[in-house]
Amino acid sequence: MAAEEGKIDPMHQFEVQTIAEGFSIGGQQIAFTNSALWMLVTLIVLGVFMLGGMKRELVPGRWQAAVEGVTGFISSMMTTNIGPAGRKFTPYVFSLFMFILIANLMGMLPIGVVGLHPFTVTSHVTVTGILAIVSFGIVLIVGLAKHGLHFFSLFVPHGAPWWMLPILIPVEFVSFMVRPFSLALRLFVAMTAGHILMKVLAGFVINGLNAEALWVAPIVSLPSFVLMIGITLLELLVCAIQAYVFALLTSLYLNDAINLH
Questions:
Q1: How many Cα neighbours within 13 Å face the side chain of 96?
Q2: In the chain, how many domains are there?
Q3: Per-residue pLDDT tens for 100-138?
Q4: DSSP assignment of 194-248, as one string?
Q5: What is the 3-state secondary structure of 182-201?
Q6: Which residue segment(s) compose the domain that 82 sits in?
Q7: Buried b / exposed e across 229-259, counting CB within 10 Å, b at 16+?
Q8: 112, 118 in Cβ contact below 8 A?
Q9: Residues 46-67: pLDDT tens digits?
Q10: Separation CA 139–CA 9 (nearest Å)
Q11: Which residues fall within 8 angstroms of residue 137, CB to CB, at 6 or more apart?
Q12: Which among 44, 74, 110, 141 could disulfide-bond with 94, CB atoms 3.0 to 4.6 Å apart, if both were Cys?
């Protein structure tokens, strides 16, 4: 936590810092940063989690049951939103859902008490933007591969009168092209806003306890601490909801590409 003269900077937690110098490409320095570190940790946690689902025991334990439960949940969502053809995309959407969920939760770890600083990679629009672009790219590839140029009929609402098409087609096109931006910004804004609010409340607690006046702590620090606990629990729920929404919207966009309308 960045603090100077009693001031706490809520934006310091989002600063990308270099951990190890890397190499240079075209004059651009490529370094190993805290963001890369936490993405790597997220992938390791995801890999360890998946190990529990590879046991294939007849009577699954809790670990295997948890993996099978999440896999079944995503598979059911794909089948419901897309149909039988959606099952082939289950591995991708599952990986997307779990990566976002674990990354969100890793950023909530209370390891600041031991001097470490968690980093929420999904609080950076570059990360959420790449995830959105990959999902959007898959939608385009699937749609064009399956339907060819007929894919562009997606921009023509079914049953719309011909005289409305000059207005509806541009509107549908813009709505379609905005999808990756909405995917990226929704996750980025939700995680950033929640972490800023928690940092501000933590600043109230710390500064209230460090104040010389004894009456500040019970009036400022205690209510802020109680509110911070509530916000933390809400943020944990947001972590799961945002991962679900990202996966759900991806499946709906894939449905448009596969089944058109």
A1: 30
A2: 1
A3: 999 999 999 888 767 778 899 999 999 999 999 999 999
A4: HHHHHHHHHHHHHHHHH-SSTTHIIIIIHHHHHHHHHHHHHHHHHHHHHHHHHHH
A5: HHHHHHHHHHHHHHHHHHHH
A6: 3-259
A7: eebbeebeebbeebbbbbbebbbebbbbbbe
A8: yes
A9: 999 988 777 777 677 788 888 8
A10: 40
A11: none
A12: 74
Separation of alpha carbons 111 and 233, rounded Å: 16
Coil vs helix vs strand at 56: coil
Radius of gyration, CA atoms only, the chain: 23
What tokens does 19 get?
Answer: 């951990």
Alpha helices, H only, the chain: 34-51, 62-81, 90-106, 125-147, 165-177, 179-210, 216, 222-259
- The first and second tokens of residue 75, run together, are 């598979």
Question: Which pair of tokens denotes residue 25?
Answer: 């490409």
Structure tokens at 168: 């509806």
